[in-house]
Amino acid sequence: MPAPFLVAQVSDPHIGGDWGGADPVAGLTEVLAAIRALPDPPDVLLVTGDLVDNGTDEEYAQVQELLAAVGAPLYVLPGNHDRRAGLRARFGIPGDPSAPVQYAADLGPLRLVALDTTIPGHAAGELDSDRLDWLDAELTRAPEHPTLLAMHHPPVSTGMAPWDEIGLAAADRAALEEIVTRHPQVQRIVAGHIHQPLLATLAGRPVLSIPSTYVQARVDFGAPEIQLGPGRSGFAVHAVIDGAISSYLHTVG
User: Fold this and answer.
1) How many of the other CB atoms lie within 10 Å of CB of 51?
2) Is the pLDDT confidence value at 1 over 80?
3) SS3 helix, strand, coil % of the chain, rounded to 5?
4) What single-letter DSSP state applies at residue 197?
5) Is pLDDT at 136 greater than 90 in this prediction?
6) Per-residue confidence at 126, pLDDT binned at 50, 70, 90?
7) What b-and-e string marks burial along 189-199, b requiring 16 or more CB atoms within 10 Å of the CB?
8) Range 109-137 average pLDDT
9) DSSP-based three-state secondary structure for 106
10) Separation between Cα atoms, residue 110 and residue 142, nearest integer Å
11) Is 165 in a helix, a strand, or coil?
């Protein structure tokens, strides 16, 4: 049996952040060290948004240097703390600096489709008609290719009002569900943003949101505000095995 094709996913490093004294550089460094210690090195590294906290060139330079230590091809997409122009410039992503950062990458046995869910200057996300049309067209190009769909805001309700207020609106989630339903090659949807592990479904496909490498959120369905604090960070490994994607969540710390 051939070796699985492996995608390591990290999310929400927030380099440059100062949330309660936590060190985002130490957090990301620890997670990346755990990835490098895996018995099977990843074929690619995926970062699902909020690479930096303030969008400065210095922060992007620092996170790029840290991520390079894994030694795998790197794919990034923006979170609500990122700046599209800075992300494009630092990581060589073509396109209009202000346009949504989204693309498809053919990775041999897997197709990665990165979808931009951000609204510049806002914490919440959106999927407008232009982005949804782009996604539908990209998925139509490769209907038989196992596909991993990556975004920052998870396209499901968390059941926690403070998080759902800065997530994707119900109408946007429903519109995305219609598109995914038409494209059975989308086997997994992965995200970040909520700083905690979450497993849900959309159109019958698993949706996995992974912890931050920085600080974690507490699951509290009655809290009026987001609850952040220390906790176990982590990363995911998505393995393509005989044309099917299996996902493994690793905790760190």
Assistant:
1) 32
2) no
3) 25, 25, 45
4) -
5) yes
6) very high
7) bbbbbbbbbbe
8) 98
9) strand
10) 11
11) helix
State yes or no: pLDDT of 230 exceeds 90. no
Amino acid found at 44: V
Phi, psi for 133 (deg, rounded to 5) = -65, -40
Does the CA dihedral 68-70-74-77 come out positive or negative? Answer: negative
3-state secondary structure 119-151: CCCCCCECCCHHHHHHHHHHHHHCCCCCEEEEC
> What stretches of 87-229 adopt beta strand conformation (E)?
103-106, 111-114, 147-150, 186-191, 198-202, 205-209, 216-217, 228-229
CATH of domain 5-252: 3.60.21.10
Cα–Cα nearest to 185, from 149, 154, 209: 149
Q: How far apart are CA 211 and CA 232, in angstroms?
A: 8
Locate the domains of the chain by residue range: 5-252
**CA-to-CA dists, residue 221 to 43, 163, 171, 232, angstroms:** 37, 10, 22, 20
Q: What is the pTM of this model?
A: 0.97
Which is nearest to 9 in space by CA: 31, 29, 25, 24?
31
| Cα–Cα dist 149/151, whole Å | 7
Please give the share of the chain, as a percent, with pLDDT higher than 70.
Answer: 100
* pLDDT exceeds cutoff 80 at 127: yes
Tell me the sheet residues that pair with 44: 7
Q: Binning pLDDT at 50, 70 and 90, where does residue 229 land? A: confident
Q: Which residues have CB under 8 Å from 128's CB, separation 6+?
A: none
Residue type present at position 207? V
